[in-house]
Design brief:
CATH class of the largest domain: Alpha Beta
Strand order of the largest sheet: 2-1-5-4-3
Number of strands: 27
Number of domains: 6
Strand content: 15-25%
CATH topology of the largest domain: Heat Shock Protein 90
Distance between the termini: 103 Å
Shape: rod-shaped
CATH architecture of the largest domain: 2-Layer Sandwich
Helix content: 40-55%
Amino acid sequence: MFPDGISTLFVAFGAAALAGAGWLGFRLGKAQKATDAERDQVESDEAFLVASGGVALLWPDDDDSNERWGAPEVLASNAVLERLCSTLLMPPDALGHDIIKALCDREPELEGLVQALRSLGIPFSKATATGLIRGSTFGPRAIVWIEPASSSIASFDVLERAPFPAWRVGIDGKLDWLNQAGLSAVEAPSLEEAINRQTWFDTRAAVDGKAGIGGALIDEVRQVTVAGRRSSFRIATFPTKGGALGMALDVTEQVEAREVLARETRAHAETLDHLTDAVAVFGPDRRLLSRNRAFTSLWGLEEAWLDERPSHAEVLDRLRDRRRLPQAPNYNAWKLEELALYTSVGALPDTLWTLPDGRTLRVARQRQPGGGLLLLFEDITDTVALKAQFRTQLDVQRATLDKLREAVAVFGADGKLRLSNQAFAEMWDLEDSFTLNAPDFSAFAERASLVFPNDEFWAETRARVTDPSAHARQETQGEINRRDGAMLNWLTRPLPDGATLLAFTDVTAAKRVEAVLRESAAAFEDADKLKTEFVRNVSYQLRTPLTTIGGYAELLEAGIVGSLTPPQIKHVGAIRSAADQLAKLIENILDLAMIEAGKMDLDLGDVHIIDALEEAAAMASTKAVESRVMVNVICNPSVGVIRADGKRIRQILFNLVSSAIGHTSEGDTITLGARRTGDSVSLWVSDTGEIMDADRQMAAFDGFSSGDRRGAGVGLALVKRFIELHGGWVSLRSKEGLGTTVTCHLPTFASSKNALPELDLAGA
């Protein structure tokens, strides 16, 4: 609708001006041929005219005088006529030609217009300070209609000067007036030509005018070409007394702006629909204006119901009924607080809603330019959970750091302390209040210098913490000695986001222990060398007299020095047997010492397993004759050949057999066996003699164990060392009812550099 001022102007115009000469001329023209009944109607119309608020100067049909003004009849109400004469400084009973003369004196252009009207029948319309003056003809008669300025003519003058096109339609449906803007729009040189040619503003203006005469009000936007440019105009046509009034306002900018706004609104709506956050806009009336898909999905509300634009309160009530709002002790009070935000002042708060289903929403609000609120609902459930998890992890990390003996601190890219543990504070004598205030590195270095006054060190460390260059952000470490004697290892390590880790470790005690260990290691090394030399010397020293004892025993046994009695022969045999055992013991001790000293190498070659077993069984059978112990060999010839040191393999079997013979008695059995499994061969010697308790089993291969009962002695220790030199391992099982079994696991292709397979050993 048009502004109130313009609407008022149109009303005033219709009350008087549009009821002017066209209407009167039409009436008087009809009166020329009127019947008696029609004359009665004319008289009635004249009464209406007099009361209409205007002054009509009517020249008679027969006024063809050559006088300047003639004698026009004056038709008007007394009040209007007095107001006009007062404006013209004339008596209220002035004659028509005097009124015309006075008007022409004031408006010189009016004289020519009146003369052209009377002589040529050219109509005119002119707004003056006196009022609106229009002239028209009907047949031989001429009519000049005057509406004084004190009435609505002043408003008509405004229309005449208005920057937008305006026009008037007479009671006959024809165009009878255009303002200057209208004339320019239709490109008419004069009002007379526009009226004569009936040049309308657009093709539908005439139709609108007739509809306006009939009482219709037309208000619509149409596209009209004006001055070669296609523009949008809001065209209004409405009825007035005596016709209709039309006007056109250029709304091109508004239409274009509206189209731009519509496009932006559509784009905005499409953008909102792509958001994962729920958005709803409530208008000044607190009713829902728009929402995105996420809003509908979040709350599960019906599209049809939302399209009805429910109020904000209704939306809250429905969500509460469906148990989708946060639990509030007093729902009504809570709702009033929410709705009060429409009229509140200051910044609108962001709040967190914890829903009954466990979700957490961040609710942000924004005031709209025309009033109303925009609400944004962001599901931050995962974020809240992650923050809680992060806080938990951070607490765990802090607790873990506080348990560390190392002093640890993290400085941010800005050089401020972000994280530290209790050991860090204690090492550098820092209060909790100092570390909690996030001091920068310079402040920390100043405090630390009281304990370790080394400006060069702290300056270099500061550069590694605060310098973002790649050269500075390198992991570095070193060692410093505080003046209190403490020795510290330090380390700087770059972290993500420009942070730097600084760590100190007090190694004073470790350094001291290290020194002690070095001294101990040197002492052990010296002791090991001394042991090796001792064993070698003792073995040599023992072998010489032992050889002498054995030699003389053989001479005595052979009878070279004379015949011996049977008891003597038995005693000499015992001496020789003991000498042989002692010789073998010395040889084993010497081998064991050589192995532990790392000075024994294997002489690798092809070893036939079954031959080695039978040789060991033959030796066992010879020794087991007196004790009546059975010796068996279980071996498939397919076990074949392995690459090993044959001498050491035989030595292994002889030691195992000797240990078995020493712990068996009459009726017991000794079994030797072998089997091949893939790339390994297992050799075993089992007996049914005395078993070993758990403690002796644990120490069986340690060496120098007690041999008074089922001890292992040097023999089993040497077996273990020989097997390990081949890259194998040994297992022992001794159990009541099953006897004792020692199993040697050897690779088929041994190497003197092979190491003991720890996993296989653990599995044994």
